[in-house]
UniProtKB/TrEMBL annotation:
<dbReference type="Pfam" id="PF13368">
    <property type="entry name" value="Toprim_C_rpt"/>
</dbReference>
<keyword id="KW-0413">Isomerase</keyword>
<dbReference type="InterPro" id="IPR023405">
    <property type="entry name" value="Topo_IA_core_domain"/>
</dbReference>
<dbReference type="InterPro" id="IPR025589">
    <property type="entry name" value="Toprim_C_rpt"/>
</dbReference>
<dbReference type="InterPro" id="IPR013826">
    <property type="entry name" value="Topo_IA_cen_sub3"/>
</dbReference>
<dbReference type="InterPro" id="IPR000380">
    <property type="entry name" value="Topo_IA"/>
</dbReference>
<dbReference type="Pfam" id="PF01131">
    <property type="entry name" value="Topoisom_bac"/>
</dbReference>
<protein>
    <submittedName>
        <fullName>DNA topoisomerase 1</fullName>
    </submittedName>
</protein>
<feature type="domain" description="Topo IA-type catalytic">
    <location>
        <begin position="1"/>
        <end position="292"/>
    </location>
</feature>
<dbReference type="InterPro" id="IPR003602">
    <property type="entry name" value="Topo_IA_DNA-bd_dom"/>
</dbReference>
<dbReference type="InterPro" id="IPR013497">
    <property type="entry name" value="Topo_IA_cen"/>
</dbReference>
<dbReference type="InterPro" id="IPR023406">
    <property type="entry name" value="Topo_IA_AS"/>
</dbReference>
<keyword id="KW-0238">DNA-binding</keyword>
<keyword id="KW-0799">Topoisomerase</keyword>
<dbReference type="InterPro" id="IPR013824">
    <property type="entry name" value="Topo_IA_cen_sub1"/>
</dbReference>
Length: 352
């Protein structure tokens, strides 16, 4: 968002261009103005050819809950400014973000891709009781994929990777078995969220706004509720699990998926004059404060400290326990009463 802010403010000087490079970026709108769609058609025709342009502009509807669409979708201010035109004047991050926005905007107004799928079904066994499948894909017409392919910086390379051309085989052909590889598969748990997958989940549930996704993910990592694994997945830590279990048990209505979406809806009603902000705050705050006070006094802590007995110290003859504290797991020798006993420190003879 910091880089997007730089592009929006126009902090970089581009010869022949004044102002920002992109439109307002703190929006989840997917609407493009008629000016933008007309400009996109001109660029598509000149860059890729008439066959890639649309006869009529394509329009989209937001799938996000409670989407705020007062602004136009995020797009380049001037679509005629190609990424290659601005690259000499931007740093690496600015160029990559501008290129992404430009490609996606252009791709939304390009013709659909035509893909040919081929599936071969191969029967095996004495009574042909087994069936194997081989699937191939061939790009007949690239369409929007000429400009942008999800998850790839190089559309041309992505097109090459998409194609898996199978040889021509007529029906009834007998195939010789060269090698048979068998492996046993087990049911796997749902995959952990990556940062991108978590953003999509929050967007689908109406949690937050585009400008809050990155700070939210950064916060749970900074507080060490989750850590990022080598494969870029977000894995809960012990302290994160303890905090989550406590909140779910005692503040279920606050940490539910629908809470934020409900609050966003009320904010929209306040903006439209349908609700008074004082009533909204009173409805939430009074029961919330009572619940916090009650849990502060009565919520059991032992259940969430996750104490585990490890044995006895061979010399001190005191119990050794492992538990989860404010800063993560730790091992303790002795009891809490041992910690609270006053310790006699040496008294300095002089005061400097």
């Amino acid at each position: 968002m910091i880089v997007a802010q730089q592009l929006y403010e126009g902090s970089v000087t581009i010869p022949g261009h004044t102002g920002g490079l992109i439109t307002y970026m703190r929006t989840d709108s997917v609407n493009l103005s008629s000016f933008a769609t007309s400009a996109a058609k001109e660029v598509i025709t000149s860059e890729y050819g008439n066959q890639y342009a649309l006869a009529k502009p394509r329009h989209y509807k937001s799938k996000a809950k409670g989407a705020q669409e007062a602004h136009e979708a995020i797009r380049p201010v001037n679509l005629a400014l190609k990424p290659s035109d601005v690259k000499p004047y931007l740093d690496h991050s600015q160029y990559r973000l501008y290129s992404l926005i430009w490609k996606r905007t252009i791709a939304t107004q390009m013709a659909q891709a035509v893909v040919a799928n081929t599936t071969y079904k191969i029967s095996a066994g004495a009574n042909k009781e087994y069936e194997f499948q081989s699937k191939g894909t061939r790009i007949v017409f690239a369409g929007f994929m000429k400009a942008y392919t999800e998850g790839s910086d190089d559309p041309e390379a992505a097109l090459d990777n998409t194609e898996k051309i199978l040889p021509t085989i007529s029906k009834g052909t007998v195939l010789n078995l060269e090698k048979l590889i068998t492996e046993q598969n087990f049911t796997k748990p749902p995959a952990r969220y990556s940062e991108a997958a978590l953003v999509k989940k929050m967007e689908a549930e109406g949690i937050g706004r585009p400008s809050t996704y990155a700070p939210t993910i950064a916060t749970i990592q900074a507080r060490e509720y989750v850590i990022k694994t080598e494969d870029k997945k977000l894995q809960p830590t012990l302290i994160g699990t303890v905090v989550n279990d406590f909140l779910v048990e005692h503040f279920e209505n606050i940490v539910s998926l629908g809470f934020t979406a409900h609050v966003e809806e009320e904010f929209d009603k306040i903006a439209d004059g349908e609700m008074a902000w004082e009533d909204v705050m009173k409805e939430f705050y009074e029961p919330f404060v009572k619940n916090v006070d009650d849990k502060t006094e009565n919520a059991p802590r032992a259940k969430f400290s996750d104490i585990r007995e490890l044995g006895e110290h061979p010399e001190l003859k005191k119990p050794i326990t492992a538990r989860v504290g404010q800063y993560g797991p730790y091992v303790q020798c002795g009891t809490k009463e041992d910690e609270e006993k006053p310790k006699i420190a040496s008294i300095p003879k002089t005061i400097s």
